[in-house]
Structure prediction request, 237 residues.
Amino acid sequence: MEILPAIDLKNGEVVRLVEGDYNNKTTYFTDPLEILDFFIESGSKYLHVVDLDGASDGETVNFKTIEKIIKKCDLFVEVGGGIRSEDTIRKYLDIGVKRTILGTIAVENTKFLEDMINKYQNHIAVSIDSRDRMIAIKGWKEIKKEDSVEFCKQIDDMGIDTIIYTDISKDGKLSGTNLDIYKELREKISCNIIASGGVTYKDEIKKLKDMGINGAIVGKAIYEKKIDLKHIIEIAK
Prediction:
């Protein structure tokens, strides 16, 4: 199992939101390279980056900042937020991003998703963000009346390599993640699953690993020093 420390970008700064609320924001670093060095020193091999402006507006607002991150490290970097066209996928892959994450476009245009899976294979992941099991899109501002687990099964059948699943109600609260939903997902789908949203405690890492989850994204718990990154990387191994 892999640990993916998270950098969420808004206007080039490293921030964290609570339940995806853009008005409930904490800024941790004005320059993401400050925290990047810490991640590397702690033994990180992976990095999860989200363009929050892009997620909301569908534009690659933080592209230059992400390019700076890529140039500074040799981590496996995955990027999401506002990726809604093949041109944007290609643009990110061309600067060294290893995996591009589709969210809104994957839900709204499954034909496009299937085409991108076939063309780019393991360079594509899908982020399923859920509120009360319903799928949230467009920076979590719009809810689709579609069961999130059923949609995961649908895209698993398409051949998706990786699904990143977030329970929005847990995100940014430092109160733990939704272990039950990951257990259900692992029983129902065969692709890689990355847990996201509220991962706070080291025992959660062990439980996720034991149930066969492939990765966990950890953000606010690292920034607030609720969890030791180096230690959970060792647990995950």
